Amino acid sequence: MQATAYTYDPESRSGQVLLDDGTPVPFDAPAFDAGGLRLLRPGQRVRIETAGEGAGLRITLVTLQTF
User: Fold this and answer.
1) What does the alpha-carbon distance between residue 20 and residue 30 come to, in Å, rounded to a whole number?
2) pLDDT per residue as tens digits for the range 2-55
């Protein structure tokens, strides 16, 4: 799934992405670390992997979108 980086805190390595419908979804340090990134800037297109649905949706991986 694709999303757009919305917020990112380098100290906690957590933030939020916006899904294509505009829904913000938070991610935590383990999801960020799983993608092998060092930094994330708001507005970057990212690829995410998720688990759960609806209110239980959580991000398990955040990495850069490659074509």
Assistant:
1) 23
2) 999 999 999 999 999 999 999 999 999 999 999 999 999 999 999 999 999 888
Token digits for 22?
A: 């505009």
Pull the structure tokens for residue 10: 């380098």
Nearest in space to 17 (alpha carbons), one of 5, 27, 34, 33: 5
pTM: 0.89
29: helix, strand or coil: helix
Closest by alpha carbon to 17, among 54, 55, 59?
A: 59
Let me know: does 18 contact 30? Beta carbons within 8 Å.
Answer: no
What are the residues facing 46 on neighbouring strands? 3, 64
